[in-house]
């Protein structure tokens, strides 16, 4: 499940940028992400054993929020969304973060990415907005924070 062009970004990032993404580049990035010490990855499978979603996170050297966990990415195939998979994945990662002693969690998301509403629904609060340049476009990067993860773990 290493999609070079995730549908999530088709209306956010320029199409010429997305067209240049390759499976090989994305595969290399994900191999690095999933094998790096301190990164935690969980996958969701359907009844046929096919991966339909994933979540990953850990502690970055340059965390937006000091001494916190970083929810790096979550993705669920469109036809598997709204089935509780995201909730299960986020709980698993947050249990791991709690085990590691993180009291707060943060996530960065582009302003036009609808997943921000998923984070808000699970109690994340907007911490700050930053202007960034990505793919030749100026975009707003939203930084959300969970100051208390206990409600997510229920």
TrEMBL record:
KW Acyltransferase (keyword) present: yes
Gene3D superfamilies noted in UniProt: 3.40.630.30
One function term, GO molecular function aspect: acyltransferase activity, transferring groups other than amino-acyl groups
SUPFAM superfamilies documented for this protein: Acyl-CoA N-acyltransferases (Nat)
Alphabetical keyword list: Acyltransferase, Transferase
Entry keyword Cytoplasm: no
PROSITE patterns per record: GNAT (PS51186)
CDD domains: NAT_SF (cd04301)
Residue stretches making up the N-acetyltransferase domain: 1-150
PANTHER family assigned: PEPTIDYL-LYSINE N-ACETYLTRANSFERASE YJAB (PTHR43800)
Protein name, per record: GNAT family N-acetyltransferase
Organism whose genome encodes this protein: Peribacillus castrilensis
């Amino acid at each position: 499940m290493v999609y070079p062009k995730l549908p999530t970004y088709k209306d956010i990032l320029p199409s010429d940028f997305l067209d240049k993404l390759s499976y090989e580049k994305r595969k290399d990035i994900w191999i690095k992400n999933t094998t790096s010490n301190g990164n935690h990855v969980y996958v969701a499978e359907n009844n046929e054993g096919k991966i339909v979603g994933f979540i990953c996170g850990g502690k970055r050297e340059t965390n937006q929020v000091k001494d916190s966990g970083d929810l790096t990415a979550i993705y669920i195939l469109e036809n598997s969304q709204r089935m509780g998979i995201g909730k299960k994945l986020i709980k698993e990662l947050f249990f791991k973060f709690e085990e590691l002693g993180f009291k707060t969690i943060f996530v960065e998301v582009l302003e036009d990415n609808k997943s921000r509403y998923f984070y808000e629904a699970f109690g994340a609060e907007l911490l700050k907005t930053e202007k960034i340049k990505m793919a030749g476009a100026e975009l707003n990067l939203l930084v959300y924070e969970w100051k208390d993860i206990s409600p997510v773990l229920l």
